[in-house]
Predict the 3D structure of the following.
Amino acid sequence: MKNRILILVLLLSISGYSQRYPEFKSLRFDEDYSVLEKDTVSNDWYKTVKILPVSTSRKTYVSFGGDMRFQYFYAKNENWGDGPQDNDGYVLGRYLFHADFHAGKYFRAFVQMQSSMADGRIDPNPVEQNPLEVHQAFADFNIINEVGKRFILRVGRQELTYGSQRLVAVREGPNNRQSFDGIKAIVGRKNFTADLFYTHYVVAHDGIFDDASSKDRQLWGSYFVFNKIPIIKNIDFYYLGYERANAAFNDASGQENRQSVGTRVWGKTENWRYDAEAVYQFGDVGDKNISAWTASINAGYRFNTVKFRPEIGFKTEVISGDKTAGDTSLETFNPLFPRGAYFGLASVIGPSNLIDFHPSLSFEIAKNVDWVIDYDMFWRYSGNDGIYAPNTTLIYPGDTTSKKKIGNQLESEIIWEPNQYLYFRLEATWFQAKDYIKASGTGKNILFAGITMQLHF
């Protein structure tokens, strides 16, 4: 089996130079291989995999693809020394395979299977180990499908991702990506797109074909994107509704009904990149009224004429936490369904009750090889609230100390992408625990290292 994988990697690597296919997307269903319909190259097995006609007109076809990812991680003092410790490290493997059926311009069906395995991991959770599941299975009805104009109705299990993935993401970092059961309407015109959706979150379990959704966790909303705006270039506006049957925060518990309204300005020039976002949340958890918010800036400047094309980056976030215990209000921000490993794979901190300053440096040290160094500084926003995981599970409560400093994190990674099929990453992280962590738990510094190998096809 290992030899077959190596042969496949080699073949794809060679074919990547002999013929250029459409770029792979984070959402694999966004890839379009219809451009290969009139391709005259014959006896190309990979082309057959990407577009297999099932009609004489070649307008009805099936496209196959997938991803394989293998990761080895070693952590010293994981979770700051609390809980079981593994001195040997562990291996994560993830397999994603899909079939994409197109019947002309107006109908499409997409099915994707996912298998996530954790070898050597102490007590893996379903986000790390989920042997085999139907990850996506939806149908598209292309009611309007014209150049510069479209209206699509999508029904079934599907991945969702929006904007900077602050609130809704595919959760690419962890071993198991996330999906939703529901319905979505997609409207697109020149320089404008809009999504309107209603879904139930698919909860991962550690068995085979046992992932399921229910009304216990619901997500609905609308997301609007305007492109080519003078000066600011791009702007997003969105509304997200969220309902959870059993929520638990440091000072609130019960049924959660939360509404989020936000905007995002983003763009890129020859040297600059920028992304600014603000979100306000309201609603209720149990008998408490929600009033939460966040604001962030993520910017960078690249020196394109300097050797190694260095980029200086800076990111800062202010994320509200609960101000006063025992009152009738809850100011803790809920990131809903964010990208996993929000502040890096070593740190379990999620974006709630937090102030974060994050400078970075990156270099293109060789063709297709990037070196990134970043340094993160964390404080609690409110000394009366705790810190949370990305899924809002409370890590430590708010009353262990009045100190706000959580810690500092130094991370470095080298990324090599020899072609569009292959991806390699070597990374190391050191997290220095400070006052709040030391007062709340064992309080040890974390050392984390890992290597990632990924194949797209």
The two ends are 17 Å apart (CA to CA). The longest helix spans residues 2-18.
